[in-house]
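Section 5.1 Outputs to date
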Amino acid sequence: MDTHPADPVRRTVEAVWRMEAPRIVATLARMLRDVGLAEELAQDALVAALERWPRDGVPDNPGAWLTTTARNRAIDRLRHLRLQQDKHVDIAYELEGTDMPGPDDSERLQDDIGDDLLRLVFTACHPVLSREARVALTLRLLGGLTTEEIARAFLVPEPTVAQRIVRAKRTLAERQVPFEVPRRADLPERLSSVLEVVYLVFNEGYAATAGDDWMRPALCEEALRLGRVLVGLAPAEPEAHGLLALMELQASRMRARTRADGTPVLLLEQDRARWDRWLIQRGLRALARAEGLGGGDGPYALQAAIAACHARALHADATDWPRIAGLYARLLVVMPSPVVALNQAVAVGMAAGPAAGLALADALRDEPVLAQYAALPAVRGDLLSKLGRLDEARAQFERAAALTRNDRERDIMRARAADCAAPSH
């Protein structure tokens, strides 16, 4: 009888793969200078594990087994390519030793692993790719998510995601994007692209754009993992710490953001005793690190500072709204955006009264970017209702309900519209 049942072993393979895949792909990409081929050969190692481990048992060091198997396949491919090119070199001598690890070489396999991962991050998030392609490729290569999982998370057809990934790999190959960390002069622009991708992944998990769910926690967890890896790989970059601080602080509220039935609970109504104090402490430490590195006015650090104001308030009435409004004013300077201006209007409405907030929100009504943005009528509806202008508020909440693609948010907006029409007012 087989002492290694297939299902438990398969779960082990999948768990190890999820943890090790980024490192394996990064190692092979350095050897092959081709991200697409690197992932293909890494997948071959995964298939080999699924075939052999149920029969032979799980190795003592499964991560090293996968890495060694994948590297050996890469070496075989390099041999084949060199023979095809008819290069008369002593391939065996060239590859022996440094490129042919044995089964017990797990320590040596870790050499330069951090540099390889950093190269993979910058390659997957290269500016030659579209934003959507960067997100999909990052989740595939660095998150180890399947095409199906990425498609489900973003409510996009699976073939669409598959095409994005294939095209992204083709583009990287055709444009001959080097597998390297950018030069110092190019680092700020390229790091910005990397951080943006992680930020987009987290935001989609924290407040789903569309569908039945208010949140997708798995995406938040993946973004947090990537953020923590990035901070470890780029410890002197303040905005990496700023983004991690923002995500840790936002994630601390997740348990309080929904009721047992999935119904959303808005920020000011949340039970703050359910906020994760450990994540808050991690976020505050990361924010302090960003500020200590001179990055206190970076876009992510400023957003983290706003989140920290909420985190430090043990109840909603204790929130320092004047400080939050001031932080949004600073954020508008470094990241001018109608969305940031709308958030500032909310903060000013809390700090100086709904009339002041409404004046700022009204000034944004002609912004093309916000024309189909559900948050604008939602904010205006809230401020109008506080001013007692209930008919106008109801119309705004109904418009917000019509614009949102998230079912949970739509229910909230409809409920608020109904409250405005209730005779008890």
